[in-house]
Amino acid sequence: MATTAKPTQKSTGSTAKSTATKTTAAKATATKTTTAAKSTSARGVVKAKSSAAEGLHELFVDSLKDIYWAEKALVKALPKMAKNATNENLIAGINNHTTETEEQIARLEQVFEIIGKKAVAKKCEAMDGLLKEGQDIMESTEPGAVRDAGIIAASQKIEHYEIATYGTLCAFAKTLGYDDAAEILHTTLEEEKQADITLTEAAYNTINFDAAEADDENEVA
Ligand SMILES: [Fe+2]
Ligand SMILES: [Fe+2]
């Protein structure tokens, strides 16, 4: 009996030990997982500023301030782009869009009025970056077809940014029940889409081909 009891006791003891070890290991794993989950979320989740928007309405107003700044910055930059372009269609397109941009600024002021907010501009980092890129492209190209192609490239990035922004603003305005504001924003959205088409046509009709020819000439020389 004693001989059978011993191994049983031994075996029970080792089972108990192994269970305890397993439990400790499981606890350690659980702690590790929790710590990992916590540190992942601490690493990935952006801490909101004290001024952070709490609802869609606030986000809508913030986004309006952002595009208001962007349009104002753009209206100052467009004449410079026109001055640096050489293709007549491109120059006419940029000049036309400068006038449209002035109207778009006035439309945004109308939207601010509809929602009962003061028209305030808040720096748009995206537009700031896009305009800097446009400046860089002009600095890194000689005037002529190649610079024109560069101006189109920079301008289309700007138009696509605006299309995305006005699309979002229209959706926000509709969701918030500002149908009149949504209609105004939609007018601008369509104008931005048309500006993008005009730029594409200018690129495909002459400018990109002329720029490619200039490239060929350089290669021959
Ligand atoms: Fe615009
Ligand atoms: Fe635009």
Please characterize this protein's 3D structure.
- Helices cover 85% and strands 0% of the residues.
- It is elongated.
- Helix 3 runs antiparallel to helix 6.
- The protein has one domain (56-216): Ferritin, CATH 1.20.1260.10.
- It is mainly α.
- The structure holds fe (ii) ion (2 copies).
- One fe (ii) ion binds next to helix 3.
Bound molecules: fe (ii) ion
User: Can you identify the CATH class?
Assistant: Mainly Alpha
Q: Which structural class should the secondary elements be placed in?
A: mainly alpha
* Rg (C-alpha, Å): 31 Å
Mean pLDDT: 85
Q: Quaternary state, please?
A: single chain
> Could you name the ranges where pLDDT drops below 50 across 5 or more consecutive residues?
1-17
| Envelope shape | elongated
CATH architecture: Up-down Bundle
By DSSP, the count of extended strands is: 0
Order of helices and strands: HHHHHH
Largest sheet: none
Q: Which fold does the CATH topology refer to?
A: Ferritin
Helix content: over 70%
Strand content: under 5%
Tell me the domain tally.
Answer: 1
The CATH superfamily is: Ferritin, core subunit, four-helix bundle
Cα-to-Cα separation, first versus last residue: 105 Å
Tally of contiguous helical segments: 6
